[in-house]
Amino acid sequence: MWAPQVFAHGVATGDQEFIAQTSGAQIIPFIYLGAKHMVTGYDHLLFLAGVIFFLHRMKDVWHYVTLFAVGHSVTLIFGVLVETNVSAYLVDAIIGLSVAYKAFDNVGGFKRVLGVRPDPRMMVLVFGFIHGFGLATQFLEYDLAREGLIANLLAFNVGVEIGQVLALSIILVAMSAWRRFPSFERHAFAANMVLMTAGFVLTGYQIAGLLAG
Fold this sequence. Notes:
Blueprint (H helix, E strand, L loop, with lengths): L2 H5 L5 H9 L5 H13 L2 H11 L5 H24 L6 H19 L2 H6 L5 H20 L9 H31 L3 H30 L1
Helix pairs in contact: 3-9, 4-6, 4-9, 5-8, 5-9, 6-8, 6-10
């Protein structure tokens, strides 16, 4: 019952009204909206937490995060400009699966079950594309003015990257602190099982929303 209202990849009511009524380029407001959307986007944050869970070098962290950013930036802009007609619930269900996928990959599930591990960099890029469509579906729910649309999209995307850096910084600090304790190695598997469960729960809610609609 709650899935359509609570667990959809939604936008706050006040922000919805602003987006729908916007005409012309509104750079600063859309940067703010993009940053807010990423910081409060639990599905994106869960996926990123899974991506960096076992990454220790900042070079590797930024490599993966850059791939994710490129992926969702491309499909966000492309999806809005071509007005991709895809159900937001369907896209968000796949995003939930991306969280479960990454957790399963982190515990070596693919290697044990299939005998081979999909290229993690390629998969992060692919899921970045899907996450970008998740953002695009929200824009397309509103009757956006064409005047200033590209500028607003680019500003929103810049805001998303700012929000991603802020959120990722907090996650990295927390993860770095946790790794200093011996309990990290003991509890890493359980933590990824929780992450995987969260991904499947999110997927279930989105499918429920799709069926309810």
